[in-house]
Amino acid sequence: MRRLVAVAVLVLAMTVVAAYQATRPERAAGDPRVFVPTAGFFEDFSPSFRTSIADAYYLYMVQYYGEHIEADGRLDSMAELVDLVTQLSPRFIKAYQFGVFALLDAGEGQAAYQILQRGIEANPDEWRLPALAGFLMYRYGQGETKNQVAADWYARAAAVPGSPVYLERLAATLTAKGGEREKAQLMWAQIYADGDKYSRAKAVTELDALLSTNPAVRANELNAVREAMSLKTFGMLLRDLGIEG
Length: 245
Fold this sequence. Notes:
- The protein is an all-alpha fold.
- It folds into two domains: 1-27 and 46-123, Serine Threonine Protein Phosphatase 5, Tetratricopeptide repeat, CATH 1.25.40; 178-245, no CATH class.
- It is built from twelve helices and no strands.
- The protein has helices at residues 2-23, 47-69, 78-88, 93-105, 109-122, 128-140, 146-158, 166-175, 180-194, 197-210, 215-225, 231-240.
- The N and C termini lie far apart (60 Å).
C-alpha cells in the first residue's frame, strides 16, 4: 500500500508541472504552503527510483518558486522542497545551486547553508559547492571571522582536482584587509561563471549595482574579474550587462 501511495505522489509531482498553468486562473498564486513528503517516505525504493522522484520534485520546485516569487513572494515550503530533492539525490548539483538562492529569497539563509554543507560532504569531488559556501559566508555571514571562514571554503574548493585556478585568488583575497567592493565583484563574477540561469540573473543585477558608472573605471573593474570565467562566458556577461563586447 505504501508503495502505491508513493507512486501516486510521484505521478502527482510530475503531472502538476505540466498541467498547472492550464488549470489555474491567470496570474493567480496557489497556496504557498504545500504538502512535501519527507525523504524517509521513499527509503524503501531503489536509488534509481529515488533519483526519478527527485527529478520530478525539482521541476515542481522550480515551478513553485516561479509562481510565488512573481506573485505573493511567499516561499513557505521551499526549505522542505530543497531538502527533499537533495536528500533523495545527494549528487544533484543543480538542485543545490538553485536551492541555495531560492532559500535566500525565502529568508532561509541558515537552511541554505546547512543543506549546502550536507551537499559538500556528499560530493567531495565537486568544487562548485564549497565555492558557493564561501560566497554565502562572505555575502551573508555575520561576525568578524566570516571572511576567514569564507576563505577556508574557497581554499577547500581550490584543493579539489580540476578546480579553476581563480579559487586560490579568492581565498587569498578574502584574507586581505579592505577592498570589500572588489571582493564582492569577484564573488558575483564567480556566481555568474558557475551558476545556473537563476543565479546568473541575480549576479548580473548585483554586479550592475556594484560596478562604477564611470565607463573607464567600470572597464577596469570588469577586467579585474575577467579571470573568474572563460572568454566565452565573459562575453555573455558583457552582453547581459548591456555592454558591446
